[in-house]
Amino acid sequence: MPAVKGTRRTDPVCGTCRKKSRKCDRTRPQCKRCIKHGLVCEGYQLNIQMYNMKNGALRKTRSITKDKHHQSSTTDTLAIMTPPSTTDAPSTTDGTDLTAARSPVTNEVCNATSTATPSATSLQLADMERERELLTHYLWICQSSPNPFETYILPLAHEHPGLMNAVLGLTACHISKPGILPRHYLFNSVIEYRLAAIQSLSALLVKEEQFGLNDMEEEIALAIVLMLVFQDLWDCGRSPQGAHLNGVTFLCDRLANPTRSLNRNRLFLVTALTWFDVSRGFSGPEKLAFPSSIRQFVAAEGGHILTALFGCPVEIFIALDEILTAGKRFWMKELDSHSFQALLDPVIAHLETWNPQLSRYPDDDPAWPLLAEAFRHTVLLRALRFPDSLKIPCTDPRIKASVNAILDISASMSRNSPYVKRLLFPLFVAGAETESPHQQQYALMCLENIRDLEGMSCRRSVFVLLRQTWEERKKSDGTKNVPWFQFTCSEDLIRQHDYLFF
Questions:
Q1: What's the pTM?
Q2: CA of 341: how far to CAs of 51, 189, 194, 285, 316, in Å?
Q3: Intra-chain end-to-end CA distance of the chain, in Å
Q4: Of the candidates 488, 494, 451, which has an alpha carbon nearest to the alpha carbon of residue 239?
Q5: Model confidence pLDDT, tens digit, residues 95-153
Q6: How many whole angstroms separate alpha carbon 309 and alpha carbon 315?
Q7: What is the distance between the alpha carbons of residues 46 and 374, in angstroms, rounded to a whole number?
Q8: Cβ atoms within 10 A of the Cβ of 75, count?
Q9: DSSP calls for 42-91
Q10: Keywords on this record (predicted)?
């Protein structure tokens, strides 16, 4: 129905027409003007009713991207943010002021300017101040040297509002600590930012299907997925249905081509996403979405990134790839038990004799070989659970030896060490594979210490899984194993689509 002359239409224009500042015909679901000009219509912003925990009333949330569409770029939006206060800025563990330690890229993001126009509303200024604080906190939680999340992610976020929303949503999730009551005032913002990021990712995937993406757009799509996966991890330790990783498998497969030259950005993104796919496949190889060719590419080209980010040396990653790839083939009935075991035996023999001192690490810190040894025993424990996860009880000497080794490594590292957080995965597996009450309690204490070091209540699924496994093991007679992954990928589960991330 055409608008009455002399009145102003209130129904929104599509995102593409808004960006280009042109008239939109408001046709749904896609604007005909965009289709006519061969453009991807980004659709229309959603009016979402959110519950305001502060005043107990329903309010309509303003689109996070609305203000950004009226600005030339994300950098312009961030340029008018006020500078962070030096009195309450986050600091590193050694007391160094993080604001002063930021790189030139970060200073460009958060530097003050006096260009805020008098016409800017108080609401807009409040949003800008909130985003500035979130970006400062983002650098604090991702601090390391070098910091890949500052080096690779932030420059891309300056180029695309969807990725910026994903970054802000990730940081708001870290601050608001999902699951904690009463809810933090940023709880609604987490949902708003996440929705805006998912809408941008959807638009990129639609464009890929119709026209293809350029190199920067490919990087932005992978970066948005990485931020969304991290938010899943920090939210509850699970990613419902693994939709984000599954949706970009084709893109990672395209990039993981030995004949195609990858810059550092793309190699970092493909490596990080591949690790998350492997970590969820650890609970059940049928959940692997990435083909083995991607993991082999990461081992050959991104092994140094893998070790620096997660602590797993490339040799152990290769062994894990062989185990899970064979495990998926066995699950798909492409291998019988005898053939599967024949593939496992040489991998297990290699893991039992591998020397972590011979591997290459980012630097000479003695913590790296300790982490490598912990991951060696973690992968060895998983290999011993194939092909029958019930066959070997926790009292088996091989199981006990690997559990003891992981817990001893944890005891040898300082509780405040920056490397101790990388032990979360091995510690969880060790805790799940022991029936000793004092070892269970020690593993739990170490995991709680890691949670406290990260300053958030994430990975609740880790603690839930441990308690479920321990309670079920108390009911058994001890002659068979109680596998922890029966609570993640069993046919008896009502929900099969929650993937664990470590």
A1: 0.73
A2: 54, 50, 44, 15, 19
A3: 52
A4: 488
A5: 334 333 333 334 444 443 334 444 446 655 566 666 767 777 666 566 555 677 778 88
A6: 15
A7: 47
A8: 15
A9: -------EEEETTTTEEEEPPPTTHHHHTSS-HHHHHHTSPPPPSSS--B
A10: Nucleus
